[in-house]
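Dear Dr. H.,

I hope your travels went smoothly. While you were away I took the liberty of generating a structure for the chain from your last submission, since the lab meeting agenda had it listed for discussion. I wanted you to have the full record in hand beforehand rather than looking at slides cold. The sequence, exactly as received, is reproduced here:
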Amino acid sequence: MTDNEPLDQPEWTSNQLRSAIKAAGVALWTWNVDDDAFLMDAKGYELWRVSRGSSLTFEHLSAKIHPADRDRVRSAFVATRAIAGPYEIDFRILTEASDVRWISARGQGEDADIADRKMTGIFLDVTGRKQAEEGHELLAGEMSHRVKNLLALASGLTLITSRSTTSKEEMVVQLTQRLTALGRAHDLVRPLKDGQGSAALLGDLFTVLLAPYEDEGAFAGRIRVAVPRMGVGETSATSLALVIHELATNSLKYGALSVETGTLDIAGILANGEVKIAWTEQGGPEVEAPADPSGYGSKLLQRAVTGQLDGSIAYDWTRSGLLISLSLKESRLSQ
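The corresponding predicted structure, in token form, is as follows:
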């Protein structure tokens, strides 16, 4: 055989093609461009959660497309009536009130002389891929937010240290100690190997994580912690540490810890299976509710408290200082 000779093409049987389509999770569809009639195979009806008992049109099927994607999908399908060539479009559908699925529609656009005035294509469920992409975007956003907070934290700790030192040598020592304390705090909340029990006591988490923010000398003792003595499980410890770091960094940038006269009190009680913690800032700049409460930091806190810790968080923007109320379930903290 020479390089110019074509390779033999295998002849696929109809059963082989059906098996391959089924294994790939492919749904077939046909659309009549004149009367809008839409036909799908069994996989298509299953994918869209529509009944096969009545006639189906593209307009009827469009009602299940997510409102944010509907106009875009309709325009893309209509364009295939006149634009030749392959096309692909991804969009969301609402199979139920709370169930969002991602669909990829693929087909071949034809000109006005299309045979039988019918077009054929496939649907693929790409929900898993889209969720993975969204997860990567979320991770990238969270990493960006943490890097910005880390830079703000380094700047704030430098400022705190400069207020309590009289020489650059002393400042280097104290700043190094504070940064080292941050490292110890991260070690404190690392997951323990082989299920070795609680990662830390609740009071230790607050005390160790907030130690780098404490002033020394004349302003020592401005951070006070009084919470119930209880263990925090390795899973919850990481989430709670994220919450503490986020609140402390915000305080260092905008609240009581941003000035040398500010104080921070963390007090908690355990009652009826819930740990209620009050984060009280006093003596800092006058505060007011942010104009945009949907910033990334706020979303990060909300997700950590309500999602990962199964709790709640509330803010009271008093003029004398910010008051944050945390309510966490004892059973979840122990995990």
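Two observations you may find useful: The first helix runs from residue 14 to 23. The mean pLDDT is 78.

With kind regards,
E. W.
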